[in-house]
Amino acid sequence: MLADTPVAVAPLRRAVSTLVxxxxxxxxxxxxxxxxxxxxxxxxxxxxxxxxxxxxxxTVMQFAAxxxxxxxxxxxxxxxxxxxxxxxxxxxxxxxxTATLGMPLAATRLYLHGISVDQEFRTQFLxxxxxxxxxxxxxxxxxxxxxPAGWFWIGGRVANLLNMDGWEAxxxxxxxxxxxxxxxxxxxWSELVRSDLAVLAxxxxxxxxxxxxxxxxxxxxxxxxxxxxxxxxWGGFLPATRGGRxxxxxxxxxxxxxxxxxxxxxxxxYLGIAAFAVTVxxxxxxxxxxxxxxxxxxxxxxxxxxxxxxSxxxxxxLIVWAPFVFDVLxxxxxxxxxxxxxxxxxxxARLPLPMxxxxxxxxxxLLGTVWLVGRASSSHRAQALGLGVIAVYLWYLASMAxxxxxxxxxxxxxxVILLVLLAAAGAFAFVDxxxxxxxxxxxxxxxxxxxxxxxxxxxxxxxQNIPQVLGSExxxxxxxxxxxxxxxxxxxxxxxxxxxxxxxxxxxxxxxERDDHVVLTADTSFxxxxxxxxxxxxxxxxxxxxxxxxxxxxAIEEWSELSSPGELLAAWEELPWRAPDAVVFRxxxxxxxxxxAEDVYPNDPNVRxxxxxxxxxxxxxxxxxxxEVGPFVVVTATGEPA
Length: 642
Known about the structure:
The protein is α/β, with parallel strands linked by helices. It has helices at about 5-40, 55-80, 80-100, 120-130, 150-160, 165-190, 195-210, 215-235, 250-265, 270-295, 300-330, 360-375, 380-400, 415-440, 445-465, 465-470, 470-480, 500-510, 525-530, 550-560, 565-575, and strands at about 520, 535, 580-590, 590-600, 605-615, 625-630, 630-635.
């Protein structure tokens, strides 16, 4: 027993050391992001979409961050001041994230894409979990959350602690969480490859995520971790390919399970592709083990490792999924399958081949592709990343095949994952190709300097162009009306500028707290700013499958055809769901209107808008209070039917 102690203690010490690095790196990143965003907020910047000043300042900051990252790579490669160089890389990478997203958005309180379309329901979810830590549905009363609440729950608790509204906390929290995820990925890379290579790979993948994945911050924090997580997973399977001999790899098995669990609590689709990629790895590992030993019994260790990964993932996932699962198991099964996967844009109808694009990301992807194929038999990293790429393409093909039966796997959202994997491979490829070129030229120092300069300038060129890649999303952040009723570009605000008055009317007439009440409205961005529950979601694609979206829509149409206030109140009394306490209409030529939506997949766009008009006479009764607020008509039910 005593003889085994040093062997057992060494992995434990390494695990503790790694955990300490994760915590320290996250703290450094959070501090850098907080200081940076606070500093940006102290200056009166012009709107990004109407001035080049913000772009100029962003470029300077990006250059400085890349220069510091280059210095950290140099120090780590030379093994000088290693601890300081690591901290420097954490600060520089988080600073790069903060500058690239925070500076272009410095003059607005909204995040990328403002409060429009998808960002509306994300903001609504953050607002819900800022109001309460309970895992409640973002929109519907008395239902558990269906969407993974991990990222939103943490953000809600941060906003609550800082006494901020959910919509106001969205931007700084999104940027800060991306900065933290980037340095966590860097620490994970450092456990898998040489430290200088880790900084290079983490920088490349972070830049790709910023350019192509940052509008979905809760998914981006997982996307930036996918590449090192797959390398880690492959390391967990490799010992089993030798017939299960040895005790190595169990730390990787546990780490992979934790990553899959984290993905399950943050973003279901990325959990799906990560779990699928790990399963593909398990199949390949089982084949290699069978070939190495000549016995099918060698497959058992692979299966055991896969089961352990899955078990850990399920346990972590239940942290946020338990209320929904228990509700379903308790006798409340979904009445409809939902339409979340009913979307097929052009990008989901063809295989993405970024390696043939005439751009910097295309060149990096091409380098990565060549490296993945060329090193497939000699590099564990290439094998892991290559299997991940194969899994993404298989997912695309399966998604396109499923269109024949009326569904998809939303493969178009995995393009950022593909780019991340190819970018990581491209970073390793650049190092290997540079070494080969240097050797071919007898390690001529001038050749090495040229290669370093080309790589550095390429990184700078890609980095400074990220705000242009995100140009439309940044513009919407400046043109949407925020929760304070203002537009950041100083233009006249939209109808949302009346939301505060609508809120005052509801609170004064209904009393209690906002989350005590259900509001029916087609202006669902109101619910993103104020934590009332909604009677109906924006579209069926974002609706909880337990909520019976189609039946609710049908009920709303039926109400508009009733002939008296008494009939309407009686219909509300008979509902199987909580009835509206208030309705926020728009003024219409023929009455009060609600603009609703229905799923029309396989058409693209996949949503059809239609208007339901309620006659004004339907609310001409003392049991209703009607108040006009700007373009809105607020109707509150203040009495019981006779």
